[in-house]
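[stage:ingest] chain + small molecule (MRU)
[stage:ingest] validated
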Amino acid sequence: MADQDARSPVGIEPPALSVLRWDEPPGGPAVVLLDQTRLPSQEVELVCGDVPALVGAIRTLAVRGAPLLGIAGGYGVALAAARGEDVGRAVELLEGARPTAVNLGYGARRVAEAYRSAEAKGADRERAAGAALAEARALHREDAAASARMARHGSQLLAELLPEGAHRLLTHCNTGALVSGGEGTAFAVALRAHREGRLRQLWVDETRPLLQGARLTAYEAARNGLPYRVLTDSAAGSLFAAGEVDAVLIGADRIAADGSVANKVGSYPLAVLAKYHHVPFVVVAPTSTVDPGTPDGAAVVVEQRSASEVTEFTFPRPVPAGAEKDGEASAAVGAQAYNPAFDITPPELVTAIVTEEGVVSPVTGVGLAELCARSSQVTIS
Ligand SMILES: CSC[C@@H](O)[C@@H](O)C(=O)COP(=O)(O)O
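[stage:predict] done
[stage:export] tokens:
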């Protein structure tokens, strides 16, 4: 099968995406987001001046992906603090916006903790709000650093698992700069392989129903000049059967204590295919995505999203629950839908989990608990 030509040569890097930033315009502080519901056709910023606006952006997936949700949650609490609002209430609202990505609550709680600890040391509201913002900024920087370390560990792992030739990697959903303070998780590993001249093809699952793969990963792959092709999710089986996939690389929204991985719906079928075809299935996620408080996959709360995402073409914008529908029908009128946002891959189907602290796998002999003990980022429940 012929590879698509890279659109820009290795070595020429595009300007970094401004995915999420803190701003202090005259009207008051705000969290400014690149609106991911508008990509790839429009690069439009969305200004969230208060917590409800940010919660709305999280629900509609204007901002999304586990690590970025953690950063958004952190800045959201800093925003509440700067506005003199109840920080505990902000944590509740933010954490409740999407239940599966553990990073969201982690970021929000961590910044609230910084606010409370400053207050406990005698800081007035303004100073405590400053401490909250500093913590949110620290979280943002740490995520960028974690991203670079995951890319390094991940590319080493690929070189060990796939010693021969350039890799053909398959990925699902979007795990690049659009979900991170840095270059992302799984996508960052593929990007590094590309920069090292070891990426032959990135297969991009379109990722029904909201097309995070086709809209967002393809956008990032094109910006970075990766050789890539988009496929419908249901085409993955025939691609494995044709021997065209050397490894699967995905991210995670929550990793349970037993190593079960919650990620974008469609990940589990890929893991089954990978097992059947003897292809490594590699998960790339920061330790802040590991939740020791969730014992196993059955305990993960999987977000169920609006039926209209399945029964209507709402592209490019998902319709928020309860809002007026504006899409063209894609299913018979009145059709019910099953629309879980995530699925669970059991640990026996996972070849390795790459974190910023190292690689968990039977090969390295390193366990999840051991890596988490090295990290300061594991979720405080
Ligand atoms: C590093 S991102 C890992 C996951 O958050 C990603 O794969 C994913 O499932 C995102 O889902 P989304 O519903 O778009 O927020």
